[in-house]
Amino acid sequence: MAKNKSSHLELVLIQLISDVLEKSNKEALNYKQVSAKLNITDTASKETILDILKQQTRKGVFSEPERGKFRLKDLKVYLTGKVDMTADGSAFIVPDDEFEKDVFVSSRKLHNALHADKVKVYIYAKKSGRKNEGEVVEIIERAKTDFIGVIKISDRFAFVNIDDRKMMQDIFVPLSDLNGAKNGQKVQVSITDWPDGAKNPIGKIIAILGEQGENNTEMNAILAQYGFPLSFPPEVEKEANAIPEQVTEAEIKDRKDFRDTVTFTIDPADAKDFDDAISFKKLENGNYEIGVHIADVSHYVKPNSPLDKEAYGRATSVYLVDRVIPMLPERLSNGVCSLRPHEDKLCFAAVFELDDKANIITEWFGRTVIHSNRRFSYEEAQEVIETKTGDHAEEILKLNELAYILRDKKFKNGAISFESTEVKFKLDETGKPIGVFVKERKDAHKLIEDYMLLANKKVAEFIAKKGKGKQKYTFIYRSHDSPNLENLGNFALFAARFGYKINMKSDKDIAKSLNYLMEDVEGKKEQNVLTQLAIRSMAKAVYTTKKTSHYGLAFDHYTHFTSPIRRYPDVMVHRLLAAYLNNEKSANAEEYEVAASHSSSMEKRAADAERASIKYKQAEYLEENIGNTFLGIISGVTEWGMYVELVDNKCEGMIRLRDLSDDFYVLDEKNYCIIGQRKKKTYQLGDEVQVKVKKVDLSKRQIDFSLIQ
């Protein structure tokens, strides 16, 4: 064995020896005893074991409490974690134990581990001042084996060039496993084998997505990349199609009837699934009865049915630039469950009596039947608010007035208002982007949001207060932890450069400061950069059965009750609420925690797919603008380049550091900037720069800019 660097076999032996010593309950063993436990009998192998014991003792991995006897030191020689691949093919292993530091692994020591795989890594003895370095010794679980890419076919073999930037290897495909794929097509390929020592894995084509560059092909490629199915299984469609649209009198009899109360929906103009409606009635005592009626999906989707299993697996609808991939088949999402106007519809509702100051006098939760009088688009409802005339003007204006009060109370209690810009594309009939615009959020959007927040908050509080300690009821909450103070401190330092101050004395002070910042920054060039950085400094919201608070909204308890057509957690919330209103016992917490965790991960996956579709359309839009010059804002800095967001159309691309020829630039991570080593010129996050569109790679959804200096 080489003295200076361990072979892979040696690492495996070190691991096996460590396992033996770990199981010896601190008893020191000699090399013969270790060999016996490993079923090693030949003399040469026993001597190898002795060599390793002595070598690793010198390195401080083992100790020798008495001559010839060895014990494992209380050190973490191995750890498990997930691979986080970098652009150059090396990786960091992010440990499962959050208190451990990341371990750097060079590309040649990954031993076929891929991005996001769960691995076991051997940690080398650390030299003073150096970061943890190691080598992958076991791939515990592959994150994925299916990839999307473009197939290149020659006379004797084929390769798939993978779209995913974190997949460094092409996949070799034998000609017998092409399954009809033609050269240059976009395909889905599955890894079937990766022989030891082989540079590339071997795979087979499992789906042909179409011709590269076609809109349908690229959108389907994004869905396949993130693991979302392109269609529903036949048994699921069959079950959905068998559900009658007609609401029976027998069903109505068991519900609170709101069909004679003014009710309407307010949604985007192009929406087809309407899962929430608002009813409004002025009471004789001068107060207002406001009902938040939500499509009663759980009435139609029964636990463990094919429909339910499919909805659970998907966990969410996916919203790409030009299409929605629904969680439920269209028959339900756009038909049976959708709260369409002038039809009797079954709902689950939260109904409140509010006074003129938006104080809640009474609340009621239960199943209802409604008959929506009108379907408003946001633009139509906004016109009623602005002109004070039109259909149901009296109801909408009063709802808006009370919504303002609810919003004000929320912010006074410490909620944070993040108003990041939402980019929309104008597409032609082939799906090609011919324009980009920023979507405005006006009172009509906020009005609906405020009543949905009220319903979600009050449903969560109702269950949270029903039982305490061991008597608490299992429920699905939407949890949002308070921010990491170090992350927030870094953001505060950066915001100070723009003249904004963050008071970090208490959670309420932080919230108040952030709200002032969001107000001040609105409409300014740095709005998106500061908003995105502020959001990144926050914890991520997740689903959980634990009764925790929602920091961003400043609510002690919060859930998702209002969108069961497009979110599976809301379906679970409806089922649990119905059971507890019926005085049933608490559900199994472990089972629901698993479902909550699955929903959180699928929500992230859907958000990633949505971002990928936006990136693709941005690249497609700028492909027509290669060579053109734009004003941009530096929106991110990394060790390999600067991200720049264009002011006019919010498209984002990169200036690569290797393309900056006037100096050698390095990243200053703490100060969000890159600095030239000789001339000390600095490019700071938030700086304005002039850029030219240099290159667009549609398959990788990458835009390269060159800096005009």
UniProtKB/TrEMBL annotation:
Catalytic activity: Exonucleolytic cleavage in the 3'- to 5'-direction to yield nucleoside 5'-phosphates
Organism phylogeny: Bacteria, Pseudomonadati, Bacteroidota, Sphingobacteriia, Sphingobacteriales
GO BP terms in the entry: mRNA catabolic process
GO cellular component terms given for this protein: cytosol
Domain S1 motif: 627-708
Location in or out of the cell: Cytoplasm
Main location: cytoplasm
Function noted in UniProt: 3'-5' exoribonuclease that releases 5'-nucleoside monophosphates and is involved in maturation of structured RNAs.
UniProt-listed Enzyme Commission number(s): 3.1.13.1
CDD domains assigned: S1_RNase_R
Molecular function terms from GO: exoribonuclease II activity; RNA binding
Species annotation: Pedobacter caeni
The protein's name in its UniProt record: Ribonuclease R
Enzyme class, UniProt record, top EC level: hydrolase
InterPro entries: CSD (IPR011129), CSD2 (IPR040476), NA-bd_OB-fold (IPR012340), RNase_B_OB_dom (IPR013223), RNase_II/R (IPR001900), RNase_II/R_CS (IPR022966), RNase_II/RNase_R (IPR004476), RNase_R (IPR011805)
Protein family according to the UniProt entry: Belongs to the RNR ribonuclease family. RNase R subfamily.
UniProt keyword terms in alphabetical order: Cytoplasm, Exonuclease, Hydrolase, Nuclease, RNA-binding
